[in-house]
């Protein structure tokens, strides 16, 4: 019997801004820069890498490289990509500790 192996692409599951926001929040909680870069790449694929490239003014190839598991995007690239997603960085604060 031959077992089939299926490719899983998490980008296919990111079909709403709420799903994308939760996905990115979980990635950022890890504190792992490479994991965050890769998660940004997953979201960029979900939203269409060509579309993100056009909105950011960055080359698709640059985005694919920067937003991979081995990527290391600059802060400028990260902010441009988040803006293209319709998101921004915001400090996390716990109002119970204020």
Automatic annotation (TrEMBL):
InterPro entries: HI1420, Lambda_DNA-bd_dom_sf
SUPFAM superfamilies: lambda repressor-like DNA-binding domains
Protein name (record): Addiction module antidote protein
Highest taxon in the source lineage: Bacteria
């Amino acid at each position: 019997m031959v077992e089939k192996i299926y490719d899983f692409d998490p980008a296919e599951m990111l079909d709403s801004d709420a799903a994308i926001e939760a996905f990115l929040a979980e990635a950022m909680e890890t504190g792992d820069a490479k994991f965050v870069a890769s998660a940004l790449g997953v979201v960029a694929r979900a939203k269409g890498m060509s579309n993100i490239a056009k909105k950011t003014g960055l080359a698709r190839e640059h985005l694919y490289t920067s937003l991979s598991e081995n990527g290391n995007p600059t802060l400028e690239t990260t902010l441009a990509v988040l803006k293209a997603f319709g998101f921004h960085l915001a400090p996390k604060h716990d109002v119970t500790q204020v």
